[in-house]
Design goal:
The protein is an all-alpha fold. It has one domain. Helix content is 63%, strand content 0%. 44% of the residues are buried.
Length: 164
């Protein structure tokens, strides 16, 4: 899957669905950060963590991110699960995230939404990195790959038009 495919087929539709079902706004800062985190966590390729338990392009772990979304945003997540006909159960959601990219997108956005701080502005690459670190808490962060992932996400989510 290319980053463009992920954005067009799952991220944008998932964010729109979440806004419709749970009133979680679709914003450019959210689009860019959700996209960049998928790139950072899985290079927009792996739904299952190689050698580990994590699920989805955002590499959610059951006891971390999944638990946090269930705890902090149960009403919003319940609406998503009903829409997608997925049982509202941590184990079921965790397993479904490996193959249901709309669910996984909603989970990623809801995890960001659990933080009361505003999302970093579009273009604030370092702010986005720090936000990602504080919410995802990656076991082995790789700052050296963030720039490329963020720039790709920015270019896809906020296309720049040539000045004529």
């Amino acid at each position: 899957m290319t980053p463009r495919d992920l954005l067009d087929r799952f991220i944008d539709p998932g964010l729109v669905m979440l806004e419709r079902l749970a009133n979680v706004s679709v914003t450019n800062p959210a689009r860019v950060l959700v996209m960049a985190i998928a790139g950072q966590e899985s290079e927009w390729q792996a739904r299952l963590q190689i050698g580990g338990p994590a699920r989805s392009f955002w590499q959610f772990e059951k006891g971390g991110g999944v638990d946090g979304v269930f705890r902090v945003t149960p009403n919003q997540l319940r609406a998503v699960c009903q829409e997608l006909m997925i049982p509202f159960d941590q184990t079921e959601v965790f397993e479904a995230m490996a193959w249901n990219d709309l669910l996984a997108t909603c989970m990623a956005r809801l995890l960001l939404w659990t933080d009361p701080r505003p999302l970093p502005a579009v273009g604030d690459e370092e702010g986005a990195w720090n936000y990602y670190l504080s919410i995802w808490r990656p076991g082995a962060p790789h700052h050296e790959t963030w720039h490329a992932r963020y720039e790709t996400s920015l270019a896809l989510c906020i296309p720049r038009r040539p000045v004529s």
